[in-house]
Amino acid sequence: MDMKEAMYTRHTVRKYTDQAIPVEIVTLMNQRIDENNRKYNLNIKLVTDDTSAFGVVAKLILAKGIKNYLVLAGPPNKDIDEKLGYCSADLMLYAQTLGLNTWYVGGTYNRKSISKKAGEGRVIGVVAIGYGATQGVPHKSKMPSKVSSYEGDMPDWFKNGIEAALLAPTALNKQAFYITGKGNKVKIICDNGIFTGVDLGIIKYHFELGAGIENFEWVTDF
């Protein structure tokens, strides 16, 4: 399975089995994490065999069997949320190619415990990771016309990018973004409250994967 295939098969999974992640898979995940950390100056960590990411209530209502997770952290700056969102998308899809399931969690994790795991820096969330009790189901999506427009004849790469963006996990599944295209230039607007930066990073990663980064460039205005 490659990253594009993973994009279509990855769904949110909140319940996990007791199956441990093999050492060789942990090694591969850590290598991918290190690449992202070096490239974007982040401090993402993979924590294994630890059940402290969620409180008692969350474990009873939302999460089951989660004992492996990514801590999404990095030095505080104006675009840290977007960087962490972008890299979390990469890591979730990479995990899917390795046969793992994931769940991005932006608000219901144990902040005190996770802050200790992260050390210094800003924490924007965690990603539960492991072998799911199920493979999850596709989330409800808006129509492409509700989240995008293109000036002139819409090229296939733009259509593919929008399709990929709609597959991206967003906070509360709001899909509160709008992408416009003109020639080879693409602009994105996202407004999802405190989750805007993270959603922006995740959506950008998916759009790039679907459209092909070689086909366009991001702009802030036309």
UniProtKB/TrEMBL annotation:
Pfam families: TM1586_NiRdase
GO molecular function, one term: oxidoreductase activity
Residue ranges of domain Putative nitroreductase TM1586 in the record: 3-211
InterPro entries cross-referenced by the UniProt entry: Nitroreductase-like (IPR000415), TM1586_NiRdase (IPR029478)
Name the UniProt record assigns to this protein: Nitroreductase
Biological source species: Defluviitalea raffinosedens
